[in-house]
Every structure is written in structure tokens, then in C-alpha cells.
Design brief:
The structure is a single chain. The protein is an alpha/beta fold. The chain is built from seven helices and eleven strands. Strand 1 and strand 2 form a beta hairpin. Helix 4 crosses helix 5 and helix 5 packs parallel to helix 6. The longest helix is centred in the C-terminal third of the chain and has 16 residues. The chain is globular, with a radius of gyration of 17 Å.
Length: 223
């Protein structure tokens, strides 16, 4: 396994208020990690800092996928984000186009141009999440679990080493949520690094992984 995220003594502020301070941790390929903590404890801010959506206030080291977040220029941020797969709780699928159209939109936006290669990659990621026969469907024709699988497929398009999943089961029934967490664990087993924020501690018990806890503006590495 290789280290792809390395934070040392990192502090994060939002609206000039301290969110997290003196944060030190690392993430490696092939790992499954939970990020837990109460609402407002800094989970989303920590995740967003990794793709430069929330700036890092200070720190000794803040490296993500060979990008130095302490000095990164705005022009380099899109290149960082292309190397990270982001899974949102509320899906954020475009409702005016099909599953395939949603995935093509991302590929076009991230520099793909060869039509055959795009079609092949779309087929690959849909197969990986068990949705190979749904490419023609519109998002509103899919169940919540199916939509979340499409969101994971979208996150996989550019073969990211790091997958950030922010409450990916929050809008799903328990059985469907378990299926999504199983899929994310399988992706970690295939070599991706997964960091999943969740309030559902039962998932943590049922699907073991390393636990990072946001508490009192600190990050505790529990296991």
C-alpha cells in the first residue's frame, strides 16, 4: 500500500471560525476508512479540504495525491479533482439526460474526446457497480439505491485512487445502504482508498474498517 493522503498539524477554518485543529493522519491505497462524528464536527470540511473546496488554514504537511494543498494554485485544482472520486449523499445527477448522458458529461468535462473510449469506459464502470443494463434509463426512473450506484460509477470514471463518500447511505433504506457499503468495501479491496463519512455506527460494526473520529475540533484515529 502507498500513502496518498498525508496531513500533519493541519488546521481548517470556515468563516474565520476554527473547525479542526492540529489534524494529523494518512490514508493509503487499498484501505477502507470511516469518518464519524456529530453533525457540525468537521467531517464534510475535512473531506472538502482534500479536493481544495475548503482551504487549509495552516499546517506542516497537507499532501493529497502528490498535490501540496498548502501551496496549490487555482489552476491546478481541476487536475487534483480528476484524481478523486466523490460520492454525494444527494446524488447530484442531471435529471435531463440518461445515465449514459450523465457519465458522458463528466468525461467530456474532464478531457475525454474519443467516442469509442468513452463508451468503453462507461460500460466498464456501470458493469463494476452492477448497472450495465441501465445506461439508457433516466435518473428519475431509478430507485435511490440504483441512483447511488450510478453516482459511484461516475466517481470511478477517471480511475481515482481516492474515493470520498459523504454519507452515501443517508437517503437509503437499511438494506440498500448495506449493499452500497458492500460495494465500497469491494472497491477498497480492488486497490482504491475509500473514506466514507457516516452517522450510522451500525455500519461501522457490521463492515469493519479504520475509524477516524471528529470530536471537539480534533481528529482521533481509533483503529
Amino acid at each position: 500500500m502507498s500513502v496518498i493522503v498525508n496531513y500533519k498539524d493541519v488546521s481548517i477554518e470556515r468563516a474565520e471560525k476554527s473547525v479542526l485543529k492540529n489534524v494529523s493522519f494518512s490514508l493509503s491505497t487499498g484501505e477502507f476508512n470511516y469518518l464519524v462524528g456529530r453533525v457540525g464536527s468537521g467531517k464534510s470540511s475535512l473531506m472538502k479540504s482534500m479536493y481544495a473546496d475548503v482551504p487549509i488554514h495552516s499546517g506542516t504537511t497537507a499532501d493529497v495525491l502528490d498535490f501540496d494543498l498548502l501551496t496549490i494554485k487555482k489552476s491546478k485544482v481541476p487536475y487534483l479533482r480528476r484524481k478523486i472520486g466523490i460520492v454525494f449523499q444527494d446524488f447530484q445527477l442531471l435529471q435531463d439526460r440518461s445515465v449514459s448522458g450523465n457519465l458522458k458529461f463528466v468525461l467530456n468535462a474532464t478531457g475525454w474526446s474519443n467516442k469509442d473510449e468513452m463508451e468503453q469506459r462507461i460500460e466498464e464502470v456501470l458493469t463494476a457497480v452492477g448497472m450495465a443494463n441501465k445506461s439508457y434509463k433516466m435518473p428519475y426512473e431509478l430507485s435511490g439505491g440504483e441512483q447511488q450506484r450510478i453516482v459511484i460509477a461516475r466517481a470511478l470514471l477517471n480511475k481515482p485512487q481516492l474515493i470520498l463518500a459523504d454519507e452515501p447511505t443517508g437517503n437509503l433504506d437499511p438494506q440498500t445502504g448495506y449493499q452500497i457499503v458492500t460495494l465500497l468495501h469491494e472497491l477498497a479491496g480492488a486497490g482504491h482508498c475509500v473514506l466514507m463519512a457516516t452517522h450510522n455506527l451500525q455500519l461501522v460494526d457490521d463492515f469493519p474498517g479504520r475509524v477516524l473520529r471528529c470530536d471537539s475540533k480534533n481528529l482521533l484515529v481509533e483503529s
